[in-house]
Amino acid sequence: MVSFVDEVTLHLRAGHGGDGCVSVRREKFKPLAGPDGGNGGSGGDIVLVADPQVTTLLAYHRRPHRSSQNGSPGMGDNRAGASGEVLELAVPVGTVVKDAAGAELADLEAPGMRFVVADGGQGGLGNAALASPKRKAPGFALLGTPGYEGDVVLELKTLADVALVGFPSAGKSSLIAAMSAAKPKIADYPFTTLHPNLGVVQAGEHRFTVADVPGLIEGASEGKGLGLEFLRHVERCEALLHVIDCATLEPGRDPLSDFETIRAELAAYPVPEGQTPLLERPQLVALNKIDVPEARELADFVRPEFEAMDLPVFEISTVSRTGLRELGFALGEVVDAARAAKADAPEPPRIVLRPRAVDAADFVVKVEGGSAGPVYRVIGTKPERWVAQTDFANDEAVGYLADRLARLGVEDELVRAGATPGSTVVIGAGAGVVFDWEPTLTSAAELVTAPRGTDARLDENRRATRAERRSEYHERMDAKAEARAELDREREAGIWRDDDEEER
């Protein structure tokens, strides 16, 4: 059985970035020729693409968990890791993307539109990229950052030119089947149509699409029946065609009361800001099932009432196909007029991308109270990314993180916020990474013989030449002779005497 799904929740996990590599080049006569660790590859993004060949979100309803590839780690010999492949997800044209809280992220209303819904992680730098004149041989590399993990909601709003609205069993599915090549399910019981059907109608030179919206009942705008769930498919239609059943046998129903009930539900449905309210769009009335003699008499009786409302009225029958040709041409003219008005309308305001201000803060420090004293939380893109890239098992990497945070001004801002040595500092939202802060964070550089960022193994160990050794020897002998001569002069001057001279 073919199903229709117009709202799904996707659980996304973008690829994580690969870790950088720590490596030292070794070759003949150059056992320690410098760092050559490559960078890690970036994780793959997840991209939504509006595809006109896709008409439903059923594939994502059955498989809501989607993930892209991780980046590969870097390797020695300056070999960078491979980046993860981008995962493209085809969605129907007219799909609205929202976050878990319901805020709209993107509206894929045109074929080919692309939206990066989940960013892949950034690859970490290898020690070759971290080398500098002051840090000639880094003994650490940066880790790859994790990709986006979270949920997004996909909501499909059918893109059609004309929407067929009316009570259940009014003949909407039969009408779209008679006017187009669509083959919806048709049966003689209410709510046969459980999902919108889309058909393409060709009337002379007019070509337009028609959407069959599931039956509406009183209270549909408040969630009764199936109306509220599918009324959003009417939002993007240029015109409304009221399909009214003139042969209904239900007590208390007649064409005029059905029409007023549907209009009340359309008026109560809020459309997004910037769109024309539903009742202000072009509307036509189709009095259906006039192949039944009683229905034709009723249609002739109520037709003047609709014409008095300045509404075009058509008496049709989907069984005998009476009036369908005239209805198709009328709908085509209305759609063409709406398209021409849209083409003449002023262009929507362009999206202006403004660069980040030069003096914009890279982070903020928030003071949070707690039973154990105040907690200083550092929130910012850079500090959080740097913490995620740090290997805390490597003392040199921790020292590098401390240097980066100090250069960014985190320590100065902590002092202004009132932090003292030993205060609890958290970097990132939620649990984050917790530190016992000291004004100057240090690594274990004092435990090594060489300064941090250098490697004593790479220092030159040159042997002295024979001439240099001879010169050093003569200098040493001359110093000894001069010392002996100085002692003799002091003895002759009577400053001191040998033990043998004192005995004599």
Question: Could you describe the 3D structure shown?
Answer:
Strand 5 and strand 6 form a beta hairpin. With 504 residues, the protein is α/β, with parallel strands linked by helices. The protein has 4 domains: 156 residues, Spo0b-associated Gtp-binding Protein, Chain: A, CATH 2.70.210; 183 residues, P-loop containing nucleotide triphosphate hydrolases (Rossmann fold); 95 residues, 2-Layer Sandwich (GMP Synthetase, Chain A, domain 3), CATH 3.30.300; 38 residues. It contains 12 helices and 18 strands. The protein is 26% helix and 19% strand.
Specify the structural class. alpha/beta
Q: What is the class of the largest domain in the CATH system?
A: Alpha Beta
Instruction: Give me the number of helical elements.
Output: 12
Q: Total domains, how many?
A: 4
Order of helices and strands: EEHEEEEEHEEHEEHEHEHEHEEHHHEEHH
Average pLDDT level:
81
Q: How would you write the strand order of the largest sheet?
A: 10-11-9-12-13-14
Low-pLDDT residue spans: 189-194, 219-228, 441-449
Please identify, by name, the CATH architecture of the largest domain.
3-Layer(aba) Sandwich
CATH structural fold name of the largest domain = Rossmann fold
The major sheet is characterized as: 6 strands, mixed
CA(first)-CA(last) distance:
131 Å
Number of strands: 18
Helix share of residues? 25-40%
Over all CA atoms, what is the radius of gyration? 40 Å
Shape: elongated
What is the percentage of strand-forming residues? Answer: 15-25%
CATH superfamily of the largest domain: P-loop containing nucleotide triphosphate hydrolases
